[in-house]
Amino acid sequence: MRILLFVLSMFCALAHSQQTAQNLFGQYRNALYQIKIIELESGNKSSIGSGFQIDALGNLVTNYHVVSEYVYNPDKYRIEYLAHDGSEGQLQLVDVDVVNDLALIRKVALSEQESAFPIALSLPVQGSAIYSLGNPHDLGMIVVPGTFNGLKKNSFYQRIHFTGSINPGMSGGPVVNELGEVMGVNVATAGNQIGFLIPLAKIKGLLSSQNAAVLENEQLKPRIQEQLLANQNKLFSLLDNHHWQTSELGEAMVPSKITDFISCWGGSNTSDKEALYLSVENRCQLDEQIYLHNGLRTGGLELEFEWLDGKSLSEHRFYNFYSQSITGAGAGNNATKTDVTNFRCQQDKVTNINGVTNKTVFCLRAYKEFDQLYDVLFVAATLDHSQQGLISHYTLAGVSKESALVFTQKFMDAIAWQ
């Protein structure tokens, strides 16, 4: 009997979900659009996404990454929409929120009847049914039922965890409750029915620009730099004011838990019976980054500590191995010469507040489009032991010089001998 009741309840829930999806499709299809980035020279689309209208003034919300090609090359592209009935029109860029991957765009010309999605007043209860809408693969509008699992835990860049399929082309589409009210925006998928949404609070922040003038081309990148600087100031102020927990690594004490949103892993080569030295590692990173354009992400942070014990090696041989380990460090993001300058480095010998002496290499490379932002590469190697040593390494992406120097001081002073 219990099995029968369970099956009936599941059937009723599925039927209700399908009915709600059909209602949403019929009620809001006029307010859901495919967003197209058109390459001017060829006249063909370069990329597509989704977007949704939020008022009678022709304002639409989409992802920043959907329109990023236009932001970086406004003289090469234009933004257009395609409606469910096949009608098309041009769009203008009103504002961006690059940190939260949102953009506000506006129709150049309005029709006699404009449809819009209502915005929810609050997020639903965890476990509630919600519905993701979008235009994947040029297939037209689809509705994907799913589950609201609350805000993603231990995350600096706030996201909603959504159980449902977010497919390519659905980026920028709305996610609504059963009343059709927008409470999130499609942004990413991790596969296996795991999706992530930009939450309601970030959408409401963007909507403060509903009545703003369209951004001029020369205003686009200064607007992004302003947002990136504000975001990294918030991040590094938090890191500087937070107590860094440490743990043992070889004969050293190193940071092991900086904040809840920076995850750490460990490893060693103890299972390698032929290893000539002992290597024990502790690696930490901020898992989320900010999308600027295809090929460039920023806002990342990585830390790595490696304890090396080469007592079975001669001092000369260990020194050579130790030196090679230092030069193996690399940048934390894959920026190209189009986006950044070459690294400029300076070497130093530093003794921290705990009496640990390091040879350090501090490197900066500048962002060509953002004159106050830099990538940072830092490597330090202890000099207090002849056949043992600690290599400390971090990379930062898209920070100011001031934030980098403050972080470096805290990073170095967090290291101690047991």
TrEMBL record:
One Pfam family of this chain: Trypsin_2
- The source's superkingdom equals Bacteria
Q: Does the keyword Signal apply?
A: yes
Q: Name one GO biological process term.
A: proteolysis
The reply on keyword ATP-binding is: no
Q: Which residues form the signal peptide?
A: 1-21
One Gene Ontology molecular-function label? serine-type endopeptidase activity
> Keywords assigned by UniProt?
Hydrolase, Protease, Signal
- SUPFAM superfamilies cross-referenced by the UniProt entry: Trypsin-like serine proteases
Q: Which PANTHER family match?
A: SERINE PROTEASE FAMILY S1C HTRA-RELATED, SERINE PROTEASE HTRA2, MITOCHONDRIAL
By what name is this protein known?
Serine protease
From which lineage does this chain's organism come? Bacteria, Pseudomonadati, Pseudomonadota, Gammaproteobacteria, Alteromonadales
